Amino acid sequence: MVSRRHCHSGRHFLLVLLFLALLLTAIHAVKTKPKKAPAPKKKRDSSYSNKGKRFFWLIDPRDNTCLGALGFGMCDGSTAWVFADRREGNVLISLLENDNSDMCLERKWCHSSVSPVSIGSCKNCGSKHWSIDRDSRGYVRVSEDKGKNCLVRSKAGGTGKFKRFKNTVEMQHCSIGYTGLLMTEVPFSEGGFLLQAADGICFDGERFRPCDLRDPLLRWSMGVRLTGGQGERFFYKAFQPDLCLTWTRGKKGVTVGDCSGKGAKSWSIKRGQLALGDGKMCVVRNFDNTAGIAKCTEAFEYLSVVPHDPTAGKLTQGGPVTAGIELG
Questions:
Q1: CA angle 286-218-192, nearest 5°?
Q2: What are phi and psi of 209, to 5 degrees?
Q3: What was the pLDDT predicted at 231?
Q4: What is the pLDDT of residue 250?
Q5: Residue 274 to residues 64, 98, 205, 283, 299: CA-CA distances in angstroms?
Q6: Is 18 helix (H, G, I), strand (E, B) or coil?
Q7: How far apart are CA 121 and CA 195, in angstroms?
Q8: 132-169 pLDDT, tens digit each
Q9: Distance between CA atoms of 6 and 294, rounded to whole angstroms?
Q10: Strand, helix or coil at 312?
Q11: What are phi and psi of 285, to 5 degrees?
């Protein structure tokens, strides 16, 4: 006859076995649980490549000078701007400023109404929320931070501890006032532009050949892609926007290719230098008129941005400004 003590021990042993079996089943279920498929990578929104944007000047009508990277000056390519889109808002990007890390108009003290303004990083808080609105007089008001703070030309004796000069600009609360500006389209904005060498020969992306105003393959335009808040300027064919100026490492030259390639990013043209990588590598011209690339400190082919339409007017200092851009 089996004692109660032995029965109790047997039941306890069975319970332990049952617990172990359940534990092993649970562990096996965890190990064999199907893994979740990785979330698909977000496709880059092509609307932030900013192709087809118009280039413009912001002109003080009192002296017909144009807003540039460090204040008001001559109205030329160096003072042209692009109003570009990004997820957080809008940025004002210098068209030809060749430093890709500092190419956006920036309110330097983004947590203060009174602040100096100059060129800076597109990542900074004072670069991301620009607005341009037309007032009742036909001028435009440039503001930042949802229209709270306005761009104004510096005056002597202003508040805020920063240096002021006749041509500098700054921010102040819009309730105090703003400088009304004229927004005028740059002549080469519509229909593209030519990249013309000093001897009148044009660059088509691979070689230099005689300029032909009727040839659409010689017409260029410029876009700015914002990646992680940083601007990347690229040159693309005005009538073939999927083809960009590019350079492939290992191929000792430049060509026209895919706009998404690494060699298509971070181009600029300033002081005659068509350059890659913040002005480090420049387009050069070989003896057979093919294009190459070399360090800008060694050589470069001087190139000018020329309107495709020779009748396009140029702004003259002291002359009236009549052209404008619809803000829509």
A1: 130
A2: -145, 165
A3: 72
A4: 64
A5: 28, 9, 11, 6, 11
A6: helix
A7: 27
A8: 999 999 999 999 988 899 999 998 876 667 788 888 99
A9: 93
A10: coil
A11: -120, 120
User: Who's near 301: CB < 8 A, 6+ residues apart?
Assistant: 197, 203, 208, 274, 282, 283, 284, 285, 291
Name every residue whose Cβ is closer than 8 Å to that of residue 267 and which is 6 or more positions away in sequence: 233, 234, 235, 245, 274, 275, 276
User: Greater confidence, 191 or 315?
Assistant: 191
Helix residue ranges per DSSP H, the chain: 4-32
- Residue 204: DSSP 8-state: -
Q: Give the percent of the chain with pLDDT over 70.
A: 72
Residue 259 in tokens: 């706009």
Do 218 and 211 touch, CB atoms closer than 8 A?
yes
* Residue 128, both tokens: 């991301």
pLDDT digits over 188-238, tens only?
Answer: 666 788 999 999 999 999 999 999 888 989 999 888 777 766 777 889 998
Report how far residue 130's alpha carbon sits from residue 183's, in angstroms, rounded to the nearest whole number.
15
Is pLDDT of 325 > 70? no
Would the pLDDT of 58 be above 90? yes
The position carrying tokens 């060498």 is: 197
174: alpha, beta or left, given left = phi > 0 and alpha = psi -120 to 50? alpha
What is the spatial distance between Cα 303 and Cα 283, in angstroms, rounded to a whole number?
Answer: 9
* Residues with Cβ within 8 Å of residue 187, at least 6 apart in sequence: 307, 309, 312, 313, 314
Say how far apart CA 254 and CA 256 lie, in whole Å: 7
34-48, 128-142, 238-252, 293-307: least confidently modelled range: 34-48
